[in-house]
Amino acid sequence: MATDIKQQPNSQEEVRQIKLLRLVMRFAGVFLVLSAALTFFHSMYWVLFTLFVGLNLFQYSFTKFCPLEMILKKIIK
Q: Is 64 left (phi over 0), alpha (psi -120 to 50) or beta?
């Protein structure tokens, strides 16, 4: 059985990156739930927004490029 070893972040920059990643994931979750609700209650075309968010998360897993992350870095500093 593997044990989980929780490593503490080594620097303030690592703490900032972790908080930023959590914020990006929070935005993605809200966008997905909102677009699913809008698809159900408003129009089937909102599925395209759901698809966009999902594809963006998928490409981020390979490229580590996220436009929202870039925007949030400039806002939060």
A: left
